[in-house]
Amino acid sequence: MQSAVDLARSGLPAGTGRRVRRRAAPWLVIAAIFVSLLALLPLAFIIWIAVQTGWETVSALVFRPRVGELLVNTALLVLLTVPIAIVLSVTLAWLTERSDLPGARLWAWLCVAPLAIPAFVHSYAWITMVPRLHGLWAGVLVSVIAYFPFLYLPVSAALRRLDPALEDAAAALGLGPWRVFWRVVLPQLRLAICGGSLLVGLHLLAEYGLYVFIRFDTFTTAIVDQFQSTFNGPAANMLAGVLVSCCFVLLGLEVLVRGEERYARVGSGAARYQQRASLGRTTIPSLLLLVATTLMALGVPFVTIGGWLAAGGADVWRFDEIGLALGQTLFLALAGALLATVAAMPMAWISIRAPGPLQRLLEGCNYIVGSLPGVVIALALVTITVRVALPLYQTLFTILVAYALMFLPRALVSLRASIAQAPVELERAASSLGRPPLQALWSTTIRLSAPGAAAGMALVALGIMNELTATQMLAPNGTRTLAMAFWSYSGEIDYASAAPYAFIMVAMSLPLTWLLYVQSKRMAGR
């Protein structure tokens, strides 16, 4: 009798144990297909340009010594930076989450805080402090400092969620602490390490400003230089094609390394917090590691910015220019975040309410654009508008579309999580009361998912505020964001005038970074 009552309450037909799949509204499917096709536009355009250019020209542009040099530089950068970042991040995560480290919570926040500093500001700070810092190893050093939090966050979150019973069982079988870590803990961190490594690798391929400061050539710097110097469409697009191929290689490697092992157990068991390990004599070396990391990742940028602000005095605070740059940055960030969130809404709704093969295909298209560097998306939109829709070249519409495509996955992930927590029964009840589908969706699911949408908009806005290459290539004439103003002054070696813009970008990013840190703790139940 009780089971029948439960079935009646859940709205499921008696005799079935599965939820009835809901069919998506046609207009939502059409909207999701349109956004997905738009997301594939940069990739399709590069392929189309290659076909139009012809194999002889393509081979001449791709198979040349300069491309080989860029490929070697990029490969060495990724192969050196990612393993160092993995070792550093896993070590710091274990110290802050699994040991009796003094002040562990403070150190955990300090390990995340470097995300608030744009990568090109890290490079600006280091090149100011060490003017001769150039080349591959300089790129590895600054890249690890700037990007290791992308690995630290998922690894530390995974460590919080691990089942301590597995480690207890391994210890009971006679394994020492190190062997327990290598054979039990580390394999369970594979997903977090793979995901974070992929994120770091994609950022390395897409970064521009960081490597310009230290005079290290990568595909992204070469593409921007080619575009700015000669506006050579075929050459720049072929470099972009090689860069996209590198991105897909990273995606494939991540899938292979990740594997298909199961990382969850059946049943909740007797979950409890892991007892923190005693550091003993290694307490001082552990604290020294954290102090050194914090000084390099936070101390150098803040000291450098503060030094230049003090050297420039009140004259560098040109409030008319700063106010204009701040206003334009906020407008583009809010408008781009709103457009990306609206564009992600149909796909997010379908992925939760009507999953299926079509949904998986469309969602994959949306995530592909997230793996493309911003310079590739910008270059595609530049060439398309110049050749096909010249009135749209360097307009507000084009730059907002670029932002929406670049940061669409951020909005999609946040919306999916918030829509999943909105009961579908409320949406059905609104429809049964006679409200049109769009009005029923607006009055129930969209309103209930507003907090998640706001968090997604904040993440998108954070990315837009620190974005440089696409803004330089697509922004309308007269646009001067905080990042563009910083880059303009630093390019003139006027580091004192660039310092206020760096300070404002960091000050605006810190609250959003704190929100990201708090959210990661909540997801782990802390």
UniProtKB/TrEMBL annotation:
A matching Pfam family: BPD_transp_1
Location(s) in or outside the cell: Cell inner membrane; Cell membrane
Primary location class: membrane
Record flagged with keyword Membrane: yes
InterPro entries: MetI-like (IPR000515), MetI-like_sf (IPR035906)
Ranges that cross the membrane: 27-50, 70-95, 107-127, 133-153, 189-214, 234-257, 287-310, 330-352, 364-386, 392-413, 453-475, 495-517
CDD domains in the record: TM_PBP2
UniProtKB keywords: Cell inner membrane, Cell membrane, Membrane, Transmembrane, Transmembrane helix, Transport
Domain ABC transmembrane type-1 as annotated: residue spans: 71-257, 326-516
Membrane topology summary: Multi-pass membrane protein
Family: Belongs to the binding-protein-dependent transport system permease family.
Protein name: ABC transporter permease
Organism: Mesorhizobium calcicola
